[in-house]
Amino acid sequence: MIRVTKVTGVFDGYAPTPATYDEMFDGPFVRPAYTSIYTQMQHLREGEIASRSDFLARSYVDEGVTFDIGGVERPFPIDLVPRLISAKDWGQVEAGVAQRVRTLEAFLDDVYGAGAVFRDGVMPRSVVTSSPHFHRVVAGITPPNGVRVHVSGIDLIRDVTGQFRVLEDNARIPSGVSYVLTNRRVISSALPEVLSSHRIRPVERYPQKLLAALRAAAPAGITDPTVVVLTPGVYNSAYFEHALLARLMGCWLVEGRDLVCQSGRVMMRTTQGLRPVHVIYRRVDDDFLDPVYFRKDSLLGCAGLVNAVRAGNVTLANAIGNGVSDDKLVYTYLPDLVRYYLAEEPILPNVDTWRMEDPAHREEVLDRVDELVLKPVDGSGGKGIVIGPQADRGELDALRARILDDPRGWIAQPVVQLSTVPTLTDGNNAGPRHVDLRPFAVNDGGDVWVLPGGLTRVALGEGELIVNSSRGGGSKDTWVMSGSGFARGQEPPAEPIRVAPRVTRAESVVVQAQDQEQQQQQFGGMPC
Amino acid sequence: MLSRIAESLYWIGRYLERAEDTSRLLEVHQQLLIEDPIVDPEAQVDGLLAVMGLDVAPEVPRTFETVMRLLAHDPSSPVSIAASVDGAREAARRSRETVSTEMWESINTFYLAVREGNLAQLRPTQAFRMVRERVAIISGTADGTMSHDEGYHFLVLGRTIERADMTARMISSAAFSASSPYAWQTTLRACGAHHAYTRYYQGRDSDRSAAEFLLLDRLFPRSLVHALTEAEHALANLDVGERRAGFSGEASRAIGRARAELEYAPLDEILADLPAAMHRIEEACGAAGAAISRRYFEGAAAMQWHGGAW
Questions:
Q1: Cα–Cα 20 to 30 A to A263, which of A109, A453, A478, B61?
Q2: What's the domain count of chain A?
């Protein structure tokens, strides 16, 4: 008698959330791009999903791929099911992100330079001057190759129709790219057969691209610049990333105390005395960079850094003062800025946004604050966000008071249903979870390069909308398909592969002395 | 290289060697307690704690459990193996872009095993073996996957200075328990030297020859003279530029002097007051450590801004 064992697959009983774009399922149907992932993962043997998922977690613990929350090192959560982006969708993202970065560059150059955007009435000057991240001290400083946003992360979401929209810009010190690199590596060990059946654009060129952009930004006259990565230290939540990037670029990872400024030059303390530094990829916030101009109590930066930058002897990447463009009030003007600076239509739309500063907007929002998402304009990492439908009456009243108190400090957006991707909810089953996407762009002065993929962050709780790692979010490996996305059949190589000549390997004579072994066995006296 | 990174590498070397040597010392101590009928357990524990530089309140019971807690698995005890592993891992985390990936991973997995309580859960003998093997894996990985550049020399320097210091401590522990007929044999075992020693002296063993082997053998890697010579080499490698006369650097001087004193003094003279001789070695290691940190590591302390704005 043949016993039939019931096969239970990881996607059984998967139900997409209503009124949300699910990237894998279109109602009951699997979207074409995901067919291979669906078939292969659905048919993994029982227990296989759980064991591969454990493997992912274990690898991150052993390798120390961690993210610190409140000073505690935790392995960065990664989900086994990859997220796919078709070549066509990616084309739009890539062009849109590059356009966005070029706009931010032009805007920052204008803000800290001529100020034409204010004279031409596109944006009131007060929007910029009232931003806490506007630093008058760097006005008039032009970076060596004109680049201020060497690295950026533009956060995107997909709305109900699947259209990518920009949620926010990060032109200060966007983090997360290290997880893009490590995710791809562990997923290729965990799902080798699935990965190899797809044609996916590689991500490992990122460190070289970044290094090239940093070298290109060196002060004039320096042919072989010394590039360093400046970290706040091992207790920073992104320390793992700082160390990984420094290692992959072959740069020194310095802390503020390793640097010293003398007569407008920056040096680092080495075992052989002071050595000059030319480009600093800094991962320390503006406020802590230089106690001369910013926070006096900062131990993370180096006194004199701003003067060295102004003297043109050192380049900071990213430049000081970029925070202006991350301001969520400036964000609301971004589509206008794209048209103003580039004379192009925005490729990626914004999410609809109300400015609380505007009395008409404010009145409308205060009436229906329980339906909207309210965000502080200078927040990052999901801090301070209030989601109306999830807040209770007390929270909403407090929120209204805070908005009236500081209207410049808030914007409102409709509750955007972020798209969902199947994510393992327990050992063996997947459920829909909300995701966003942070593509990373590197600007070397000539060209804006967008890393194919970027970091997909996923809110691990059911129905949760906040995906930030600091709020318990996880991540997914993000696959950007190349062409159709599926591996082709065997094609003959263009040139025949040459075979190396065979060389006999040396062997020890000891192991070959079989006669001797026999004699030893036979004539060594009586067995006991 | 960066002073701060050099310091981290130096301490990785020291802490790992300390963890290994402590486990060796503990293993021998355990054997002595079990096998030696005439040894006074309490005095033995006192001697061991003193050798490791621990001051323990009189009301703490002098038992093997206390020793295991203080020297092996209590991370809050500064000389425990757990604390050494913590220290090594912390130093590796600070120099993570410099130590090779594989080396970082082997240090990290060792740290995770200790943090999960493996030292306390395993049988003591297994725990000691695990520590020895893990340290061997890490050293082997470092030798095989790190460039033998300045950073590597700092790692080796830390390792050899710690080894000299710990061997001196083990020898003085043997000298203190010289009443036991097994004292020198067990010390040889603690240093992993018993096999090499037997092969070389072939049964002509005596306390004197055992002491000679541990102090003066030029070929055995854990002998004092060998460890000090290696430390001298590492220091010479770190020194840039050619030299015609003498040695620059207080560290080379302290180490070289200690080694010369051992090698050129008549053995009987050293043996006459062995604890004092070992104390001098420990002091030389301490002085060398301080000199290294003055010359290569200093100045990396955090600075504070006291001026006003311009």
A1: A109
A2: 1
